[in-house]
Design brief:
- The chain contains nine helices and six strands; from the N terminus they run ααβαβαβαββαβααα.
- It has a six-stranded parallel beta sheet, with helices on both faces.
- By secondary structure, it is α/β, with parallel strands linked by helices.
- Helix content is about 45%, strand content about 15%.
Length: about 230
């Protein structure tokens, strides 16, 4: 759809929501980013998957990439609290091993592949270079962590420093810590992390459609008006 038509639709749908709701959508959208994205490899516990989606929404990460090799990704409504509704979910599940497909797609879009692992000491959350370019944070399955395909193709490794006897955190906790720390550093930096106007308009239209009741019939009315 042409950019000007998207803007027209945004203006049209906005007539059917309150001013407060409109301001809320704009406020949240203003802090959305695709500079950082999250990749979940083969998670099997729905409460963990849902908690990560909730963290992504809370910390402004718009895209989540989901690799389904063995386990089908599922969302627990009680945990996600509707977060998935406001995110763009990209699934990789057409082959027996979809990890390399995800890595290839992300690299083509200019992302650094960053593996989160307790078994590396290359860089910590506080020293990770956020200004180097877009990055994709990979989180692995609850039992075994990230696959060899991710570890072998990672550009960088990210470590959460820990000082106890337990050497790893729950996947949803790890994701929340990483997203909070890195998003705060990103928002306080001079890095251009925000969406461009066209991206923002596409997302706003999608959100309005999810907010306005009977949006399809309302949108048909819009096209009928402009075609008269």
């Amino acid at each position: 759809m042409e950019p000007h038509r998207i803007k027209d639709l945004i203006e049209f749908h906005s007539r059917f929501i309150s001013d407060n709701r409109k301001l809320q959508l704009k406020k949240v959208l203003a802090q959305r980013t695709r500079y950082v994205t999250v990749v979940l490899e083969d998670l099997f516990q729905s409460h963990n998957a849902s908690a990560v989606l909730r963290s992504c929404d809370c910390f402004g990460v718009q895209d989540v990439h989901i690799i389904e090799n063995t386990n089908e990704f599922s969302v627990s409504p009680q945990v996600a609290l509707g977060a998935a509704k406001w995110l763009n979910l990209h699934k990789y599940n057409k082959h027996q091993n979809n990890t390399l497909d995800a890595i290839s797609a992300l690299k083509k879009n200019g992302y650094r592949i960053v593996a989160t692992s307790p078994h590396t000491n290359e860089t910590s959350l506080n020293t990770f270079n956020i200004n180097k370019g877009k990055f994709a944070l990979f989180f692995g399955t609850e039992l075994t962590g990230l696959s060899e395909q991710v570890m072998d193709n990672a550009d960088e490794f990210l470590l959460i420093p820990m000082h106890g006897f337990t050497e790893s955190l729950n996947i949803s906790v790890s994701a929340a810590i990483c997203l909070y720390t890195l998003s705060q550093r990103l928002y306080e930096s001079e890095t251009d992390y925000k969406l461009d106007q066209h991206e923002a308009d596409i997302i706003m239209l999608d959100w309005l459609r999810k907010t306005v009741k009977s949006w399809q019939s309302i949108e048909n009315r819009f096209f009928n008006e402009i075609n008269q």
